[in-house]
Amino acid sequence: MAEKRSEWFDWIKAFGIAAILAIVIRLFLFSPVIVDGPSMQPNLQNGDFLIVNKISYILGEPDRFDVVVFHATESRDYIKRVIGLPGEHVKYENETLYINDEPVKEPYLEERVESFSGTYTHDFTLENLPGNFEKIPDGHVLVLGDNRTNSKDSRRLGLIPVDELVGKAQLIAWPLDRFGFVGE
């Protein structure tokens, strides 16, 4: 009888430890996110199940072209791509991204822009965005959706505080035919 009780206790203890580990991982390390909407097409699709690395920006700073999840409102998170970093001036002119007046290629958009009829990304400068900044201030980033014709991003929201970033999208986990790392 004591042996059976010990076995049950071992099972309960194992499940308890597993549950605590799952909670710690979910709260502090990785988080699942489902893409909701077309703003990151063609690179991310509505319904894609992503794994977000939550410690990326605790240990480091965002890099240009990182795909990030951030708190857009108290109840809603958005997924966008980091385009501008602190200290930079950003403008878009004739389908070309300029950072500090130097053209920057966006390889993740090339195919889409070539096949699109019309203007894919309308011209703008950092000064035209909410906040009227000349340079991106410390602690902020400029984000854009890959689907520039249908994305609520820094052009409407303004610059995003780095402390609102949940983490970096690392992996498309579902659907299986799209399984892989979130690329540039």
From TrEMBL:
Keywords: Hydrolase, Membrane, Protease, Transmembrane, Transmembrane helix. It is an enzyme of class 3 (hydrolase). One of its GO terms (cellular component) is plasma membrane. Residues 9-174 form the Peptidase S26 domain. It comes from the Bacteria. Belongs to the peptidase S26 family. GO terms for molecular function: serine-type endopeptidase activity; signal peptidase activity. The chain crosses the membrane at residues 12-35. It comes from Pontibacillus marinus BH030004 = DSM 16465. This is Signal peptidase I. It is found in: Cell membrane; Membrane. The active site is at S39, K80. The keyword Glycoprotein does not apply. InterPro entries: LexA/Signal_pep-like_sf, Pept_S26A_signal_pept_1, Pept_S26A_signal_pept_1_CS, Pept_S26A_signal_pept_1_Lys-AS, Peptidase_S26. Its EC number is 3.4.21.89. GO terms for biological process: signal peptide processing. It is a single-pass type II membrane protein. Its main location: membrane. It catalyses: Cleavage of hydrophobic, N-terminal signal or leader sequences from secreted and periplasmic proteins. PROSITE patterns: SPASE_I_2, SPASE_I_3.
